[in-house]
Amino acid sequence: MFEKQTLLFYSCMTPLHMGAGTAIGAIDNPIQREVHSGHPLIAGSGIKGALRHHLARTWQKHEDIKRLFGPERDASEHAGALAFTDAQLVAFPVRSLKNAFVWATCPYALARLKRLAANAGVAAEWTIPEVGTGNAATASDAALTDGKLILEAFEFTRVGDCADIATWLANNALPPGDAHAFFRDKLKRDLVVLADSDFAHFVKSATVVEPHVRIKDDTGTADSGGLFYTESLPPESLLAGLVLASVERGKGKEEKLAAETVLARLIAGNGEAQPGIADAMVQMGGDATTGRGLVLIHPAQGA
Description:
The protein has 303 residues and is an alpha+beta fold. The protein is built from 7 helices and 15 strands. It has one domain.
C-alpha cells in the first residue's frame, strides 16, 4: 500500500498536551501513553490532523491538500495518500544537578528508534549500551558530579559511553542553523542512557502537571469546585515516527501523483506558495491559546 517513507522527529518547544480522554489517577487530563510501556506518545491521527490544519493555513491551493490527505468531507470519495505512525518517545528532559537538565533515554526507546530508522532507510550505525538499574551511559562527563550523575533525587553510576548516539541524534533530530546550535551541542554533550525501569520512572513522574480553574461563562469568574489538573509533555521532549506515502488515490482521469512526489510535497513543499513541513513549527494538542503544543518537525538526514 505505502511505497515511500520518511523518519520524522518531533521536538517540543513548549509543553505539549495530547489528551488521553480518560483520567485514572489524580490527574484530570492525562496525556496519551502506551499501554505496555507507559511511555508518552503522540497518536498518528493527532499528527495527521494537526499537519492538515497547519497546511490549510499556509498553502494557497487547498485542492493540493485534498490530493495528499484526502477530502475533508465525503471521505468515501477516496482515501488520502499519507499515513502517520504514532510518534514514539526517544529522549526525555530530566532535571540534573549540573547543566540544568539532561536528555534521558533507554535501550528500549533506542531499539525502537533504530528500527524506525532502518524502515526509513536512514543509517543508524551505533550500538545500544547495556545499562543496569542505578547505572547510566553518558555522552560526556559534563553532567557528572564527583563521577556520579544526579537526576532529580537519584544518583546514577556512569558505566558506559553513548557519544556516538548523541552525535547521531544531534545531526538527525534537530534542524541545522545557528538558532538550534545550542541545543545540538547540548544534545551531543548531555544525552544519558538509563535502564528501562529507571527511564520509565521519570517519564511517568516528571511530566508537567498544571492546575487550571474552570471559568463560568456568564460571569467570567472562577467556578466553585472547578479546579482540575492537566498533564503535558515538557519542553525539549523528543519523539520520532514515520510518515508513509502511496500513489495519489483521487478519482478522475488526471495524472496521479507518485508516492515519491506525495512525500516530497509534504516535506519540501511545492514552491513559495506551498512550504513543506520540514523544520516547521506546528501547533498540536490542546491549550493552543496559552502557547501550548508548539512542535518543531525535522526529517532525518538521508530519509
